[in-house]
Amino acid sequence: MKQVLFLICIMFSTVLWAAEKVAPVNYDEAKVPQFVLPDPLVMSDGRKADSAKMWLEQRRPELLKLFEENMYGKPTLGGINMKAELFESAPVFDGKAIRYQLQLVFFKGEKPLQDDPKTDFLIYTPAKKNSNEKSPIFLGLNFMGNHTINTDPEIRIAKIIWDRGNGKQVPGKEEERGKQSRRWPLETIIAHGFAVGTVYYGEIEPDFNGGMKHGVRRLIYQDGRKLQPNEGNAITTWAWGLGKMLDAVTEFQDKLNIDPKKACVIGHSRLGKTALWAGAIDSRFAVVVSNNSGCGGAALSRREFGETVHRINTAFPHWFCDNFKKYNLDVNSLPIDQHEFVALIAPRPVYIAGASEDLWADPKGEFLSGFYADPVYRLLGTDGFGNVTEMPPVNQSVGNRIGYHRREGKHDILEFDWLQFLKFAQKQIE
Ligand code: GCU
Description:
- By secondary structure, the protein is an alpha/beta fold.
- The chain has a single domain, classed as 3-Layer(aba) Sandwich (Rossmann fold).
- Helices cover 30% and strands 19% of the residues.
- The protein is built from eleven helices and twelve strands.
- It has helices spanning 2-20, 52-72, 186-191, 218-221, 234-251, 253-256, 270-281, 309-315, 338-343, 363-379, 415-429, and strands at residues 81-92, 97-107, 118-126, 135-142, 160-162, 169-171, 195-200, 258-268, 287-291, 350-355, 398-399, 402-407.
- Strands 1-2-3-7-4-8-9-10-12-11 form a ten-stranded mixed beta sheet, with helices on both faces. Strands 5-6 form a two-stranded antiparallel sheet.
- The protein starts with a helix and ends with a helix.
- The model is unreliable at 12-18 (pLDDT under 50).
- The structure holds alpha-D-glucopyranuronic acid.
- Alpha-D-glucopyranuronic acid binds next to α8.
């Protein structure tokens, strides 16, 4: 009897193990499965949104809820307060720009406590002759600390940098200064008349499974409250952080000469997924830019090309809400796909960028999300993806209210990408 039980246990665990085994990565277009995409305009009860009013009042709220429940999770940080203080500013780049550094402190209740989570918010604005003229701004999180985005010696070095591989913390170091500057072409951004502001994402929440204990979310879950399967995880927390950056810009708009109504949210890769979600949940963002955002970003989940839902949930269980894991082995039962994610931003301008060698992020799937979001943009009276019908050649920027390019090369965000974003934003918001 004992032996039979033992055998049954072995068989059962083998079945479980086999079920959890992640399928090999597919990079072959011919092996992309057949799938039917949900129609963004069709409501769960079968009615079709046939007017802007119906989209905005009925279908969009329904879709947003579906994305919250099944993928990114509901926001939980509504009760957190923020105190913003400007602690440094000076002219830079031969007087062409001004650097500002603010500290943001996050707290519950009346006033911050000593150990409450805090972050440095670094901003560069164009130095304007006419001080009444406010600049538009790009807001984005960075991966390695503010001091890594430029060699500017006055950027305060991040106190703690989190190793996202093992969850260990190390102090930020002088020798890392400017290491990521290829991703932040500040002088080009300034020359185009835009300000730019950034925060180290690890100061909002460190990026590893268990990181929520060390970031802003500790204020919510410190009393032992458990994360619910439909509650926001790291991506939703970072997206919340982007909204807080916009709150600070709004508070300091006169001092900084920035127009918070012209805020463009931007992000690369996992932070590109985050930028799209921030744009979806916070309509104050006038322009949304996602770069190489891939699976869980702009790429269609149902294509299962490169990274898949199963893989992302396995490698990064802390990014999406726990309900998303239900779809690991049956992506077709997801009630949504990523073209509808893009459509949540409509009618506001959105730009999707991919890279030709970044197959892991499925550049074609990223393109198709823009393409299939187009009917929603049209319904809302914009020219959507313009006359785009197929993937453009590399390095060619296309579209209208929805913009797209596929840079030649690897997974990265480079000056070429920024130049397209700047042109797009200039056209869309000026
Ligand atoms: C991994 C991950 C991607 C993510 C990327 C990044 O490759 O699988 O989903 O976009 O990291 O953030 O650099």
